[in-house]
Task: inverse folding
């Protein structure tokens, strides 16, 4: 009888140890993913600030176009200031989609594609072409409307937090 009760308590100890190890690994993973999310949110905030600076630059460009005081070299939409180093690292490590979930991964990738250096060059060429046709102001307005929609779709991510046991994000009530 003693051998059976001793084996039972050894088994209970092993199960309890495994459960504690599982719980500790979940807590550690949550802490790591929360830190990664915080870094990605900081990067997003910096990129939104960069977009606000771009809007100011384009407002000045519209004024100069309206006054007829613009050269072809000034017809440029700079996107070199946008930084995706933290996000790209998470894409490489495979955490990006897990942390953000499908919806916000899709929105983030759309933001990254739109505010890329390559797209900036394309939009600059279109701007020059539209300026030659006296439609550059309309093009800048169209560009800003598109950009505002993309940025506004991603703003709720700034207030998101991770769920404890599940993958995915919890949004603040005012952002949903």
Result:
């Amino acid at each position: 009888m003693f051998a059976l009760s001793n084996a039972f308590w050894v088994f209970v100890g092993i199960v309890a140890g495994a459960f504690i190890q599982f719980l500790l690994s979940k807590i550690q993973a949550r802490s790591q993913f929360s830190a990664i999310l915080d870094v990605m949110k900081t990067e997003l905030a910096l990129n939104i600030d960069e977009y606000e600076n771009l809007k100011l630059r384009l407002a000045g460009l519209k004024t100069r176009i309206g006054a007829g005081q613009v050269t072809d070299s000034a017809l440029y939409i700079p996107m070199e200031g946008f930084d995706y180093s933290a996000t790209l690292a998470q894409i490489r490590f495979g955490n990006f989609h897990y942390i953000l979930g499908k919806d916000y991964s899709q929105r983030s990738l759309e933001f990254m594609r739109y505010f890329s250096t390559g797209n900036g060059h394309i939009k600059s060429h279109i701007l020059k072409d539209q300026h030659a046709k006296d439609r550059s102001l309309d093009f800048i307005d169209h560009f800003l409307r598109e950009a505002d929609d993309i940025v506004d779709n991603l703003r709720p991510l700034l207030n998101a937090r991770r769920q404890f046991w599940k993958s995915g994000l919890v949004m603040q009530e005012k952002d949903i």
Notes: The longest strand covers residues 161-162. DSSP finds five helices and two strands in the chain.
